[in-house]
Write a structure and sequence with these properties.
It is an enzyme of class 2 (transferase). With 233 residues, the protein is of the alpha/beta class. It has helices spanning 9-12, 34-43, 63-67, 83-91, 101-113, 176-179; strands at 21-24, 48-51, 71-76, 95-98, 117-120, 134-137, 140-146, 150-161, 166-167, 183-194, 213-216.
């Protein structure tokens, strides 16, 4: 039986170096690989290109890497909720590539499936399309987008087994599944790690073939980015 487990986050991130391109799962603060991000901070790697829906908040998530000036470029679809991100972008310290959210997801999925490029109507006629090939399909112009190329993908799942099979929970599923297998090495951290064969095959979202390393994370904060409550009557 294939065993993809590693002992801890330190082993999981072996090989990460400055200048690499990293995919990081999550949406806002939901489903972010907290342990992997904390280890990246400890490693003090620099000049990173990060592919993620957004950059967390100032003091959590990818915002921690921004604080340490470890990120050279962010490829994202949303950049709100982070004052340091805004400051670095406007000052020219941080290179930012903003792309439509669906295109971001599809560029990950294309890399996962081994598809080098695809055409999409999203972004045509805007700055997003500048310098890109345009073709018409069914009377509608589409722009050519290329699959991402990343060295590592860091994802977070609710439960996984030693063979790397993953189950996500609720909205924490977000960008995590399409980033699995979309990089040279996919690292999955899970809240619960069980022996291979204990997961119901019908409940598995991502098969272990897309995962290279898996470990059980710890001390998850699971912060709420925007807490919204109903006013008292």
């Amino acid at each position: 039986m294939i065993n993809r487990t590693v002992a801890n986050v330190e082993k999981a991130l072996e090989g990460v170096k400055s200048g690499m391109t990293l995919m990081v799962g999550g949406f806002g603060l939901s489903g972010i690989p907290e342990n992997s991000i904390a280890q990246l901070v400890k490693l003090e790697v620099k000049d990173l290109t990060c592919i993620s829906n957004n950059a967390g908040v100032d003091d959590f998530g990818l915002g921690l890497l921004l604080q340490g000036k470890q990120v050279k470029k962010m490829i994202s679809s949303y950049v709100g909720e982070n004052d340091e991100f805004e400051r670095q972008m406007l000052s020219g310290e941080l290179e930012v590539d903003l792309i439509p959210q669906g295109t971001l997801a599809e560029r990950c999925r294309a890399a996962q499936a081994g598809i080098p490029a695809f055409y999409t109507p999203a972004g045509y006629g805007t700055e997003v399309a500048e310098g890109k090939e345009v073709r018409e399909f069914n009377g509608k112009p589409h722009i050519l987008e290329h699959a991402f190329k990343a060295d590592f993908a860091f994802v977070k799942a609710w439960k996984g087994d030693e063979a790397g099979n993953l189950i996500f929970k609720g909205t924490a599923r977000n960008f995590n599944p399409c980033m699995c297998g979309a990089a040279t090495i996919t690292v999955a951290e899970v809240e619960e790690l069980v022996p291979a064969g204990q997961l119901d095959p019908n409940e598995i979202h991502i098969p272990g073939i897309f995962v290279k390393r898996i470990f059980q994370g710890e001390k998850y904060e699971k912060r709420i980015e925007q807490r919204t409550t109903r006013p008292k009557e």
